[in-house]
Amino acid sequence: LGEISRLLLLNKADNLDPERRMDLIEKYPGALFISAVTGEGLTSLALSVIGRIDWSRAITLETVAPTSLPQ
Questions:
Q1: pLDDT for 55
Q2: Among the four residues 6, 7, 16, 34, which has the most C-beta atoms within 10 Å?
Q3: DSSP character for 31?
Q4: Residues 40, 13: contact at Cβ < 8 Å?
Q5: What count of other Cβ atoms lies within 10 Å of the Cβ of residue 7?
Q6: Is pLDDT of 39 > 70?
Q7: Residue 26 and residue 19: Cα distance in Å, rounded?
Q8: CA 41, CA 32: separation in Å to the nearest integer?
Q9: Residue 3 near residue 50 (C-beta atoms within 8 A)
Q10: Distance CA 30, CA 45 (A)
Q11: pTM here?
Q12: What is the DSSP letter of 13?
């Protein structure tokens, strides 16, 4: 399967004072700060997840419509 991609998420970013945020940035470079309350970081999280998907391995689904509907 290859290497497993990982994301470090730091939740409740809305509760951080600027000094603590800077400490965490230095300690965990590349971590994403997120907050469900304010929505901070959620777009970055979604884009990061999408960017890590190996689209060459994506499953293609075929939709088949019935030829007749039940009465």
A1: 78
A2: 34
A3: P
A4: yes
A5: 12
A6: yes
A7: 11
A8: 7
A9: no
A10: 12
A11: 0.69
A12: G
Alpha-helical (H) ranges within 1-71 are 18-27, 42-52
Q: What is the DSSP letter of 5?
A: P
Cα(35)–Cα(20) distance, integer angstroms = 15
CA–CA gap between residue 1 and residue 23 (Å, rounded): 35
Taking the CB of residue 41, how many other CB atoms lie within 10 A of it?
A: 19
Tokens encoding 61: 């689904």
Size of the chain in residues = 71
What are the beta bridge partners of residue 10? 33
Instruction: Give the tokens for residue 66.
Output: 């019935």
Q: What pLDDT does 71 receive? A: 62
- Looking at per-residue pLDDT, the higher value among 60 and 28 belongs to 28
C-beta pairs of 11-14 under 8 Å, 24+ apart in sequence = 11/35, 11/36, 12/37, 13/38, 13/40, 13/41, 14/38, 14/40
